[in-house]
């Protein structure tokens, strides 16, 4: 599967943006490329890529930038200047994990001119099992709100319809129908269909790239 030097991952709360950002960065690393994750989620106190910073650094050699270590558990918008390094780098790829919804996407706006110079791929992650993105029109509404807030256009759609560890093949296929309708109505192509690794061989043949996911993020109650 092709990827660009700069990938930006946006979407609604609970869509699985952070999980995809981590898995995508690992995939790029496995392809032999240096890669960083840029954590731009300054809204959601849970499920942020910096929560698996040490695991990524130790296992994959992937650096997490965006929020300084001393502010790692703070719910304040303290964004490190290392973000500019990720944007301008000619040697490393970067995956931006952006906060949910239009509010979470707003910090992207300050970098929009630099981002467009880099010819990025901007992935909208869709989980139709979330209450406000159950159908194509709702997804399109979210898409437009995120684009307006970030001043950046979505280039690709990602079907990540899931129920966390309880996800079934039916969930994935139900989501794909909705994402295909979004694609037809907007003209935005589908980049991939993501699915838990243990379900990959259970999926029927589909016309899109299937991207296996390992689940890195855990809920606060899973950590207890």
From TrEMBL:
CobQ/CobB/MinD/ParA nucleotide binding domain mapped to chain residues: 9-186
Signal peptide per UniProt: none
Q: What InterPro entries does the database record attribute to this sequence?
A: CobQ/CobB/MinD/ParA_Nub-bd_dom, P-loop_NTPase
What Pfam families would the database entry show? CbiA
Matching Gene3D superfamilies, A to Z? P-loop containing nucleotide triphosphate hydrolases
- What is the protein's given name? CobQ/CobB/MinD/ParA nucleotide binding domain-containing protein
Task: Specify the species.
Answer: Caldanaerobacter subterraneus subsp. yonseiensis KB-1
């Amino acid at each position: 599967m092709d990827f660009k030097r700069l990938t930006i991952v946006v979407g609604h709360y609970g869509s699985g943006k952070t999980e995809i950002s981590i898995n995508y960065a690992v995939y790029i690393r496995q392809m032999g490329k240096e890669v960083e994750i840029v954590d731009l989620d300054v809204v959601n106190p849970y499920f942020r890529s910096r929560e698996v910073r040490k695991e990524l650094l130790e296992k994959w050699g992937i650096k997490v930038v965006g929020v300084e270590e001393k502010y790692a558990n703070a719910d304040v918008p303290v964004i490190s200047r290392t973000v500019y390094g990720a944007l301008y780098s000619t040697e490393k790829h970067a995956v931006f994990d952006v906060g949910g919804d239009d509010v979470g996407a707003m910090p992207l706006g300050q970098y929009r001119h630099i981002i467009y110079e880099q010819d990025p791929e901007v992935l909208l992650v869709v989980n139709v099992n979330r209450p406000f993105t159950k159908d194509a029109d709702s997804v399109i509404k979210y898409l437009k709100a995120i684009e307006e807030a970030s001043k950046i256009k979505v280039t690709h759609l990602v079907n990540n319809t899931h129920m966390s560890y309880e996800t079934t093949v039916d969930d994935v296929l139900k989501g794909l129908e909705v994402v295909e309708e979004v694609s037809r109505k907007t003209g935005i192509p589908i980049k991939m269909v993501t699915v838990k690794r243990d379900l990959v061989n259970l999926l029927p043949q589909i016309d899109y790239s299937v991207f296996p996911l390992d689940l890195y993020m855990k809920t606060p109650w899973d950590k207890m």
